[in-house]
Amino acid sequence: MISNFLVEKYGKMVLTTEQTAEVFNVTVEDVNIMLQAGELQGKRLGSQVRVSVYEIEKILSGNFDKAIDNGSKIMYPPPPQIEFEENIVSEEEYQMGYALGSVFQNSTRGTWHFAYYYIEGGLKRRRVETCQSEQDARHRQRVFNDIRGETVYQPTQPAVLRNTPAKTNRKHLLEDYLKSVLEVYIKVNVSNSTRKFYDNTAHYIVNGMQGVYVEDLTQREIQEFFTGLKRKDGKKVSPTIQKSVKGLLNRMFLYAVDENIILKNPIGLGVKIDKANRKRAKAKKISMDVLERVMVAVRGSDVHYQIVNTLLGTGMRIAELIALRYENVDFEKGCIFIEEAAKRVYEDQEFEGEETKNVGDPKTLSSIRVIPIHKSLLDMLAGMRANNPNAKLVFADKNGKMRSYHSLRWNMHNFWNDHGLGEEKITFHRFRHCYCSYMATAKVPTEVRAALMGHLNDNVTDDVYTDVEDPSKRDAVEKYFLHMKSVFEAV
User: What class is the 172-279 domain?
Assistant: First the structure.
């Protein structure tokens, strides 16, 4: 789909006017004219305008009443003959096209596409993907044909269900087949951080099963693989990583069964992995009296007060706070626009202890949201901006760079210990839990709390770009701050 292609290219769900102009192949002035005329919907934050990739997809896919001509002679071509979506097909068409991956070029736009058939939820489907180039499309076709084998169904042949693997002389190397499954099935419609997670997990499988064929693997060999699974430094991998590796292997084998490459999943119920020694405790809200002690403690430190006050006053995730930019704070309308989050890579995921800081999409698509903020918090942020007018990041370190989650966590951990709050086990996420819990206590409706927290279903709609002044959200924030008055004013 066009939106997925744009997210992969630009790394975010909303684009600037410059990026939007690049997509439409027009000037920024033309985009501004379209925004003013209402032909393109966007969200303005101060001097910045953002356009949703779904809004762009709606126009490029021809989902509008008539072609756009805004006086600047901007004419968009008619919608393509092949829609960018998945279509349910009949059993006969599926059987005839099962082993075929077709490549074609859209003559109107000049884009290259790759189409294939697959099964999902018991339904036969045909999917058309937009590729970066003809070479990319041909590569996907080769990968796809390697998965399916060499059997090709001709339209003149009767449609027969295949209950046994296709009889071909070709076997499938596990590392090649896993890569194909990741690209064709698993890494479709996921964020960049999720893609990296799958790549890191696949790294363990590929290193431990080089030269092995999917058809030859037995349950015993898979168990031996997990028994000897180690990190690069020779240490045994954690139970969490073992669980991720097993889950990816299981999905790969299920696709192999579905594609008639193997008859059954060799993992079954017999493969065992280590279990974690401890269970992660669920985050609990912090009591009001402890919160008052927390606010008294942090008032003696500007940085700690600013971080805690923002987390408790907005319900933001710590990764969203670390990546927050001043351009995403609308001081006129009193709100914060969440569109980015800091990403982390841990030692069990390929980089052996090195923590990298990247900015990407929030945790889920529904996390892209607008949060109204109380006047007291807005005044604090305005003061921070006045003290450092050239800063881009709201919570940058002393060098103006993005803070490290690891160092920030330990800094706060030591701060709590130094102020007699160590036994309370206060974490960043517990402030988010407080935000949600005490809003419920303040009688804020569930759907409003969900919207503020970013807990809606993963369907981003135009509401995200038009709800800055939503009275229900603003009223919820006022109720929350009134309920928490003794905490925010604690001295």
Answer: mainly alpha
